[in-house]
Amino acid sequence: MFTGIIQAVGTLAGKEQRGGDLRLVIRSPGLAMNDVQLGDSIATNGVCLTVVELTGKGYVADVSQETLAYSTLSGLPVGARINLEKALTLSTPLGGHLVSGHVDGVGTILERREEARSIRFLVEAPTELARYIAHKGSICVDGASLTVNSVDGPRFDLNIVPHTQQETIIEGYRPGTKVNLEVDVVARYLERLLLGEKAVESSKTGSGVSMALLAERGFLR
C-alpha cells in the first residue's frame, strides 16, 4: 500500500523486452534507497512494481502483460520522468489516501489552463471508471493523491498547487498526455457490498450497481 504522496521524481534509464513482458531500469537519485531490499515494492508512476535488482543509482523491475495493458508504462520513452513512492509502513503519515498501486486504467489530459499560481487540468477517464469518481473525492494520477474538483460523466477537473507541481511530474502534462489512474479502493469495495448476493451474478452478466438496486437496498426513496 501507498499514500499517493510522491517522495521523489526519477527517470526511466532503460527498458528491455523479455518474453512478452517488460523490464524497466529506474534511476532514482532523490529516493532514499538505503532501506530498500530485493522484493520490496515501489510505486512507479502509480504502478506497484517489485524491485528485482538494486543498481546503486536506482532499481530494476519487471512489468507483466496485465500491468502493461492497464497502464502507460509500455509507452514511456527512455529518459521519461517518473513519480516514485516507497511502500508505506505503520509509521508513515497518511497524508494522501490509501493507494494500492493497482492501476485501473489510462486517462487523457484534455485541457490545461493557468489559474493564479495553480494549474487546472481537465482529465477524461475510461467510461467504466466514471462511477467511482466523485466530487471532492480522491483519485490517484500517476501515483499522486489528488482531489477531484468537479465531475462531468467520465471527465473530471483537478487543481494542482505550486508545491505539487514542483514535487511531481504533473507540471509537464499537456493536452494529450496519457496518465495512470487508480480510483479510490473504498468505492470499489462499496460497490461489491451493495451488490450483495448479486455479486456472483454480476460477474457473469457484467451488470453493476443500478438505480433499481439502490432502491431495493433502501438507499433511494
Automatic annotation (TrEMBL):
Keywords: Repeat, Riboflavin biosynthesis, Transferase
Stretches forming Lumazine-binding repeats: 1-97, 98-194
SUPFAM superfamilies: Riboflavin synthase domain-like
Alphabetized Pfam families for the sequence: Lum_binding
Domain Lumazine-binding per the UniProt entry, residue ranges: 1-97, 98-194
Catalytic activity: 2 6,7-dimethyl-8-(1-D-ribityl)lumazine + H(+) = 5-amino-6-(D-ribitylamino)uracil + riboflavin
GO biological process: riboflavin biosynthetic process
GO molecular function, a single term: riboflavin synthase activity
UniProt keyword Transferase present: yes
EC class (word): transferase
EC code(s) of this entry: 2.5.1.9
Keyword field contains Repeat: yes
InterPro entries per record: ATP_synth_asu-like_sf, Lumazine-bd, Lumazine-bd_dom, Riboflavin_synthase-like_b-brl
Pathway recorded for this protein: Cofactor biosynthesis; riboflavin biosynthesis; riboflavin from 2-hydroxy-3-oxobutyl phosphate and 5-amino-6-(D-ribitylamino)uracil: step 2/2
Subunit structure: Homotrimer.
Task performed by this protein: Catalyzes the dismutation of two molecules of 6,7-dimethyl-8-ribityllumazine, resulting in the formation of riboflavin and 5-amino-6-(D-ribitylamino)uracil.
Protein's UniProt name: Riboflavin synthase
Lineage, highest ranks first: Bacteria, Pseudomonadati, Pseudomonadota, Gammaproteobacteria, Chromatiales
